[in-house]
Design a protein that fits this description.
Blueprint: H1 10-14, E1 33-34, H2 36-43, H3 48-57, E2 59-64, E3 67-70
Length: 71
């Protein structure tokens, strides 16, 4: 099985969704901006699963190099 390196902020591993008990709904409507290089990397990945997820979920906005796509 192939291994994939995932980079994420430290708080992500400690996050636990409280579902309907959440009063903030912090994740609702999240828009995560991706820079141009990252969008290109995901869309051209040799791993078909990564490429498929990227094609299905990244919305190209092309505002500037640091905000090229998001979900």
């Amino acid at each position: 099985m192939k291994e994939i390196t995932v980079t994420e902020p430290a708080f992500v591993t400690r996050f636990s969704c409280s579902g309907s008990a959440c009063r903030d709904h912090c994740c609702k409507g999240w828009r995560i901006a991706l820079d141009k290089a990252t969008v290109k990397k995901y869309l051209s990945s040799k791993d078909i699963a990564i490429r498929t997820i990227a094609k299905d979920n990244i919305i190209l906005v092309k505002k500037d190099v640091s905000d090229w796509g998001g979900d």
